Amino acid sequence: MTVFRSIRWRIGIVFAVFVIACISGLGVYLSQRAGDESLGVNLVIVIGDVIAAIIAILLAFQILRITTEPIKKLTHLSRKVAEGELELDQDFQITSRDEVGELATAFKQMAARLREMVALITNERDRMATILSNIDDAIFMVGSDSKITTMNRAAENIFQVSEKKALGHTFIEAVRDHEVNGILQRCLSTRKQQTGAVEIKPKKQSLTIIATPLPGDGGCLMHIQDLTELRRLEMVRRDFISNISHELRTPIASVKALAETLNEGAIEDTAVAKDFLNRINVEMDKLAQMVQELAELAHIESGETPLNKRRVNMADAIGHAVDRLRAQADRAGLNFDFVIPPALPEVMADESRVEQVLVNLIHNAIKFTTSGGKITISARARDTDILVSVADTGSGIPADDLPRIFERFYKADKSRSGGGTGLGLAIAKHIIEAHGGKIWADSVERKGSTFSFTLPLEQKA
Ligand code: ADP
User: What is the pLDDT of residues 226-263, one digit of tens each?
Assistant: First the structure.
């Protein structure tokens, strides 16, 4: 019945039964006082009263039970929600259609909405966390008490401090640099954006810093960019331009001087003129070689030269490269030694490019080794690649220069550079890396150098 669906109605009915019982009881009492002796009628009314009172009590208990049961359930569920559990569907079996039922439905909707909002916030938080952990710039969120509340992986890397150690600690404790901390403190006290450029020790990292006040809690967001690599590249570019100008200026100046001397009369002396013309020729060859190597390097760097890969027998490639340079090695009084096993697996590579690398390494070994020295060429297969080495007993490379010799135009000892362009190793590095391999050098000054490279073996299916 509809009336039982409302607590108000239920209480009303209990109340009505109770009132009827009271009125009829009062009636009996008054008629007794008035001396009405109709005992039979009064007895009927008294019995009716008792029955009405019992019904009222039973109804009251029943209503209490029906009403409090879902409320108890609701209280239990509210506690669960308060504890953060929002998956209520299974437990949520309140079916009553009274006010408590309505409350339960509203509660259910609220929990669903809460769930949606929590999912949205979690999603947003995960997105932010992904962005934060994947950007290269360091991010710190710092509270008004200078304590770090959030930081990302880049911040850990730049300042060499783990998130675990830094969170909850003051900014200065984590970054250990007063200049960087000064920018934060200015932001915290002025509540205005502050910027600065700082070089931090010990790795001499160049940082640019932007401190922005955060709305609300009085804290600041620290955005720190590490420009060290950019600065290094800028330096490499500047070095490159200064090197190329220097390298071009030297032969051009020689040619100009020789031509002027010829013009001033040396041309009359046939022997001198011939010698000068030969020297001009040599200088022009150097220039031509440099221009050709530069063009080649630019080409390889742009990735426009596709590798013409096919099966290459490394022993054959080494043989071809040595054949091209044997006469030169003989003239320099150098011997070759080979450590190459008979069954060397083939690699997929651009044979002419691999030969070019070998020629460059062997040519350098010849240039930088004095007469009577030895050049040892070895090759061996490893798990996933082939390792090739060209070792000499020559001048070696100073430890300071060793990490830079693969840079364009870099020459370890300019006075002994043997007239090279300084581009050969840069080209070799590009070629080997384009094949998925690695190239490096080990050297001890005055003892000799070993240049090694790897080429990946074809993976067996
Ligand atoms: P280049 O030989 O034309 O100068 P490279 O790029 O081939 O240019 O080599 C760069 C520099 O590395 C050389 O100028 C030299 O200083 C150093 N180098 C290369 N190979 C050797 C070697 N086998 N022994 C000593 N120094 C070497």
Answer: 998 888 888 877 877 887 888 788 889 989 999 999 99
CB 443 within 8 A of CB 425: no
Q: Percentage of the chain with pLDDT > 90? A: 51
Task: Report which of 116, 122, 125, 114 is spatially closest to residue 84, judged by C-alpha positions.
Answer: 114
Indicate the pTM of the whole model. 0.56
Q: Report whether residue 412 contacts ligand 1, using a CB cutoff of 6 Å.
A: yes
Q: What is the DSSP string of 402-415?
A: GGGTTSTT--S-GG
**222 with 196: CB under 8 angstroms?**
no
What per-residue confidence (pLDDT) applies to 419?
62
Residues paired with residue 17 on neighbouring β-strands, in sequence order = none
How, if at all, do strands 310-312 and 335-339 pair?
A: unpaired
What is the mean predicted confidence (pLDDT) over 363-375? 95
Nearest to 52 by CA among 79, 84, 82, 14: 14
Does ligand 1 have an atom closer than 6 angstroms to the CB of 408? Answer: no
Q: Is the separation of the CB atoms in 158 and 138 below 8 Å?
A: yes
396 backbone φψ class: left, alpha, beta (φ>0; ψ -120 to 50): left
Which residue has 């070689």 as its token pair? 289
d(CA 402, CA 309): 31
- Any ligand 1 atom below 6 A from CB of 425: yes
Select from 413, 416, 448, 439 the least CA-distant residue to 337.
Answer: 448
Q: Please write the tens of the pLDDT for every residue from 68-92.
A: 777 887 788 788 778 877 666 555 6
Q: 79-132 pLDDT, tens per residue? A: 877 887 766 655 566 666 777 778 878 887 888 888 889 889 999 999 988 998
368 lines ligand 1 (CB under 6 A): yes
Which neighbouring-strand residues pair with 381? 386
Q: Which of 364, 402, 411, 447 to mutate to test the pocket of ligand 1 (most atoms within 8 A of CB)?
A: 364
Query: Residue 81 — φ and ψ, nearest 5°?
Result: -60, -45
